[in-house]
Amino acid sequence: MSTPTKPVTNDGQHALWDRLRARTSARIGLGRVGTALPLDEVLKFQFAHAAARDAVHTPLDMAALAHDLAPLPTLLLASAAPDRATYLRRPDLGRQLSAESAALITPERCDLVFVIGDGLSATAVQQHAAPLVRACLPELVGLSIGTIMLVQEARVAVGDPIGAAMGARMSIVLIGERPGLSVADSLGIYLTYAPGPGRMDSERNCISNIHGHGGLDYAAAARTLGWLVREGLKRGLTGIGLKDERPALERSSAQPPILPKP
Amino acid sequence: MGVYQCDHHGQRFRFNSLREVMAHASPLRSGDQLAGLAAPTAAARVAARYVLADLPLGTFLEDLLVPYESDEVSRLIVDSHDKAAFAPVRHLSVGGLRDWLLSPEADTASLRAVAAGLTPEMVAAVSKLMRNQDLILVAAKCENVTAFRSTIGLKGRLSSRLQPNHPSDDPAGIAASILDGLLHGAGDATIGINPALDNVPNAMALVAMLDELRERYAIPTQTCVLTHVTNTLAMIEQGAPVDLVFQSVAGSEKANNGFGVSLSVLAEAMDAAHSLKRGTVGDNVMYFETGQGAALSGDGHHGVDQQTMETRAYAVARAFKPLIVNTVVGFIGPEYLFDGKQIIRAGLEDHFCGKLMGLPMGCDVCYTNHAEADQDDMDVLMTLLVNAGCGFLIAVPGADDVMLNYQSLSFHDILYLRSLMKVQPAPEFEAWLESMDMLTPGRQIRAPEPSSRLARLFDQQGARG
Fold first, then answer.
1. Mode of pairing for the β-strands spanning A187-193 and A204-210
2. Nearest to B252 by CA among B297, B284, B210, B222
3. Least CB–CB distance from B173: residue in A23, A34, A92
4. Are B272 and B230 in contact (CB under 8 A)?
5. In the predicted model, is pLDDT for residue B462 greater than 80?
6. Is B302 within 8 Å of B35 (Cβ atoms)?
7. What whole-number distance in Å separates Cα of residue A92 and Cα of residue A79?
C-alpha cells in the first residue's frame, strides 16, 4: 500500500519546486492525497473560479463609473441584450444598442469616442477603466474626444454603431476580458478606424492584458494607444495593416511574463 | 429535397428539409438556438427524431446537407464513400442503424469494417437517436489504434496529452510543467504546447526544446507545438524536429477557410511530416482539434446544426490518418454549449461519432469561466468518457491553463481515472515509467519521492535555465 505523500515533505523536492514555481504561474508541485489533490489546493482552485464567476456575473455599477470619470461627460447606454443570461447566449445582441439607447446619441463630429463596456469582466472595468482613460488623455492632446459612452451588456463591436452615430473618426472600446483563474480583472482596448456597420475584427487593433498582476500597466497601455491612434488616423486604417510596425505593439499584444526573467 | 412530416397525438409536425429534421432532432443546445436552427418546441424535437428514425441511410447520399458543387468537404465525403463497407448496413434506416449498433452483432471487428461506409451525416443522425448510455456503450466497442512513438487507442489503456502552456512561452516555465506532468505519468499521447506567441521562430525554439527534452530522458512519446499548419510546414522546411502536424479543422470548406486551411495544404503538411520518418512504432503524423460551434463561429455552417457540422470535421480528419483527434468540447463558450449538461452531452456525441468513423478520438474535458459549468461537471464527463473507451484526454497542471485561461483536467484527474478504472498508459510509455521506477507494484503512478530518478535528473540538468 502506498501512503499519501506530498513532494513538499522533502527538503530537496521543496527547493526544486520552489525554483520551478518562480518560472511559471501554472499549478505545479501540488502534492497528492492518494490520487487526489490536497484539500487546500482544491479550495484555492474553487476560490479562484468563484472570483472569475463573480467577475462575469457582477453587474457593472454604471453610476459609480460615471462618478469616477467626472468631470468628463458620460452617457449611460445598454446593448440589445436585456440581461446577463441573454448576453452570454446571444453575442449578436451585445454588438447592437437597444432602441432606447440608440435614440440617446447625438452626432458630435469628434476625432475619438471612448466606449466603455462591461464585457465578460465588470470587475476589470470597474477597477481599471477610469484611471486608464485618465492615463490616455495626455497621449491624445490635440484630438477632439466625444462624450464617453458607458454600455451595459456590451461586446466589442457595440463600438461600431456608437462610433457611426457619433460621427467619430475612431472608436476606442475599453472592455472586460474573459476572466481566467489567475487574473479575473483584465481589461482590453480595441481601436476601430471609421467605426460602422460591417467592420470585421481584422480591422481592429487590440491592446490586451491590462491589469495589476504582472499585466500591462496604464502608462504603457496609454503610450501604445497614443501611437496607434495617431498612426491610425494618419494612415486612415486600423487592424492588420497597422500591426507589427513597432516593437512596443508586439509587446502589448503578447502576454507579459508573470515574473521577470532572472 | 422533400418535405418531411409525422403525426403525433393529433398534431402534425412538418420539416422543410433534411437539414431541418437533423437540426430539430438535436438535443437542445445554445449554439443551435443562436443559429436559429433549434427545434421550436420540445415536442417538435421528438417528432423530428421519429422522422429521422424512419429515414433510410441512403437518404444522406442523395440529399446532401451541404452542396457537393460548392464545398470540398462534401466532395471528400461523397467521393471517398466506401460502398463495399456500407453494404452490410445500406438496407437500414437511421433507427435500424441505432439498433444494430447496440446489438451483439456490432462487435469491434464489424464496427471497424463498417466505418469507411458511414458518412458523417449518417453518424450524426444516429447519434441524435441515442441516449448518453448508448453513446458510451457503442463507443466502448470501437477500437481505433494509431501509433508514432507510442501506441494510442488500445482497449484498457488511456493516454494523455501533457499541455504545459505558459503565458509567455518561457522555456524553463514550460519545462517545469512538463516535469510535473511526467511525474504524474502524463504525456504519452503527446507533449504539446499551445504557443502564446504564434510565429515560426518562436515555434522553432519551442519544438527544439521539446525534442531535446524528450531525447534526454528517452521518453517514448511525440511532441508538438500547436501552431498553424503553414507555420509547421515552414518549420519542416527549415529543418525543425517536427513529430506531429497540428491543425484545427471544421466541417465545411468555408469554415476551414476561416482557419486558413484547405484539404490540399493538409495533404502537403502530412507528406512533409512523413518525409521526416521520425515515428518508431507507427507513422500517424497528424493531430487535429475540433469543437462544436466552430463552423457557426466561422460563418460556415450552411444552415446545418452544430453537431452535424462537427461530425463533418471528422471526415476531414479521417482523410489524413491522424495519430489523435481532440474535441475541445467546452472551450468555445456558453453561446454554443451553455452549461455542464450540454458540454457533457456534446463530449459524448463527439467521442462516439469520431470513434464510429474510425478515428482515434480524445477529448479536452474543459469549460470557460462564463459557462455554467465547474469541475464537478468535468468529473462526470471524464468518468463517462473513459467508460466509453476514450483514447486520450488533455491534462494541465492543476486543471488551470494559465495561458489560454480556461479549465481542463489536471494530472491528478488522470491518476484518478487510472486508479478507478484500471486503465494503463500506452504500452511503450508504461515500460518507460517502469524503467524510471515510477510505477508501484500495483501498476499505479508512484507519488514522487526524494529519490525519484526523473526529478533528480531534471534537478541536475534541466532546471538551471
1. antiparallel
2. B297
3. A23
4. no
5. no
6. no
7. 10
CA torsion, points A55, A59, A63, A68, in degrees to nearest 10?
0
User: Would you tell me which residues 274-293 of chain B have a C-beta closer than 8 angstroms to some C-beta of chain A?
Assistant: none
Q: Which cell numbers in the block locate residue B94?
A: 437511421
Q: Is the four-CA dihedral B333, B334, B335, B336 of positive or negative sign?
A: positive
Report whether B323 contacts B147 (CB < 8 A). Answer: yes
Cβ-Cβ contacts under 8 Å, A89 against chain B: 30, 33-34, 334-335, 338
Residue with cell 455599477: A61
For B359, other C-beta atoms within 10 Å of its C-beta total 26
Domain with residues B146-435, CATH architecture: Alpha-Beta Barrel (3.20)
* Residue A49 to residue B450, Cβ atoms within 8 A: no
pLDDT digits (tens, 9 = 90+) for B253-310: 999 998 999 999 999 999 999 999 999 999 999 999 999 999 998 889 999 999 999 9
What cell does A47 get? 476560490
Superfamily of domain covering B4-141 = lyase (1.10.220.70)
The verdict on B331 touching A (C-beta cutoff 8 Å) is no
pLDDT, one tens digit for every residue, chain A (262 residues): 444 444 444 566 778 888 899 999 999 999 999 999 999 999 999 999 999 999 999 999 999 999 999 999 999 999 999 999 999 999 999 999 999 999 999 999 999 999 999 999 999 999 999 999 999 999 999 999 999 999 999 999 999 999 999 999 999 999 999 999 988 999 999 999 999 988 988 889 989 889 988 788 999 999 999 999 999 999 999 987 886 455 433 443 333 333 322 2
Query: Is a pLDDT exceeding 90 seen at residue B251?
Result: yes
The ipTM is 0.94
**What are A211's three cell numbers?**
491589469
Give the residues across from B409 on adjacent strands: B395
Q: Does B31 touch chain A if contact means CB atoms closer than 8 Å?
A: no
CA distance A207 to A39: 38
Q: Where are the domains of chain B?
A: 4-141, 146-435
- Residue A149 carries which side chain, given as an amino acid letter? M
| Å between A74 CA and nearest CA of chain B | 28
Inspect the interface and report whether the beta carbons of B369 and A89 lie closer than 8 Å.
no
Residue contact A12–B416, C-beta within 8 A: no
B64, B68, B74, B77: CA torsion to nearest 10:
80
Q: Which residues of B touch A40 (CB under 8 A)?
A: none
- Alpha helix (H) residue ranges in chain A: 11-21, 39-57, 62-69, 84-89, 91-94, 99-104, 122-136, 159-166, 218-235, 247-253
Domains of chain A with bracketed CATH? 57-253 (3.40.50.11240)
Give contacts of B 360-379 with A, CB under 8 A: 368-370, 374-375
Query: How many CB atoms sit inside 10 A of residue B2's CB?
Result: 10
Q: B369, A28: Cβ pair inside 8 Å?
A: no
B189 close to B152: Cβ distance less than 8 angstroms: yes
pLDDT above 80 for B457? no
Q: Residue B75: in which H helix or E strand, if any? A: helix B72-79
Q: Has residue B450 got a pLDDT over 80?
A: no
State how far the Cα of B161 lies from the Cα of B196, in Å rounded to an integer: 18
Are the C-beta atoms of A75 and A105 separated by less than 8 Å? yes
Q: A125 Cβ partners below 8 Å, 6+ apart?
A: A60, A65, A116, A117, A118, A119, A174, A175, A176, A187
Question: Who contacts B103 (Cβ-Cβ below 8 Å, separation ≥6)?
Answer: none
User: Are the C-beta atoms of A29 and A17 separated by less than 8 Å?
Assistant: yes
Is any Cβ of chain B less than 8 angstroms from the Cβ of A16? yes
Three cell numbers at A64?
A: 459609480
Is B30–A35 a contact, with Cβ atoms under 8 angstroms apart? no
Rounded CA separation B116/B144 (Å)? 13
* Torsion on CA atoms B87, B91, B95, B101, rounded to nearest 10: -30
